Amino acid sequence: MNLNQITVPSSSLERAVPFYQKLGLKLIVDALPKYARLECPDGTSTFSIHHVDDINTTNQGITVYFECEELDDEYDRLIELGLAFATPPTNQDWLWKEASLFDPDGNRIILYYAGENRKNPPWRVK
């Protein structure tokens, strides 16, 4: 099984789409103001955003992870574009390096690099 797409809710695609474009995703379906689909710059996964009238921004149930081989450089690029991060690139106990931010609707975004530890950490079940 391979990840095909993730869809997140948004109260304003006019705000959300440019945010994800700054992250490097390419708009491939433009059905604004109700729906947009973007293509990840690496791999084959896509990312969708659909309009909702009422979004519960206190619900932290949606977290999206985007892997970046050059995480520090990507972080610097996004800071230059004016994106605000909740946490800078930080080495985690689970052997991933992560930086976090929130999209305009409060969905948590994690940019990370894990290398071989993404699917094969030392504690992987054999």
What's the short version?
Residues 2-114 form the VOC domain. By secondary structure, the protein is α/β, with parallel strands linked by helices. Helix content is 16%, strand content 37%.
Any overview of this molecule?
- This is VOC family protein.
- It holds the Pfam family Glyoxalase.
- By secondary structure, the chain is α/β, with parallel strands linked by helices.
- It has one domain: 2,3-Dihydroxybiphenyl 1,2-Dioxygenase, domain 1 (Roll).
- The strands form two sheets. A four-stranded mixed β-sheet has the order 1-4-3-2, covered by helices on one side.
- It is globular.
- The protein starts with a strand and ends in a 13-residue tail after the last strand.
- CATH H-level superfamily title: 2,3-Dihydroxybiphenyl 1,2-Dioxygenase, domain 1
Strand content: 35-45%
The neighbouring-strand order within the major sheet is 1-4-3-2
Measured as a percent range, the helix fraction is 10-25%
Structural class, by secondary structure, is alpha/beta
Relevant terms:
126 residues, alpha/beta, 2,3-Dihydroxybiphenyl 1,2-Dioxygenase, domain 1, 4-stranded mixed sheet, 8 strands
Write the layout of secondary structure elements.
Blueprint: E1 5-10, H1 13-22, E2 26-31, E3 35-39, E4 46-51, E5 63-67, H2 71-80, E6 85-91, E7 97-102, E8 108-113
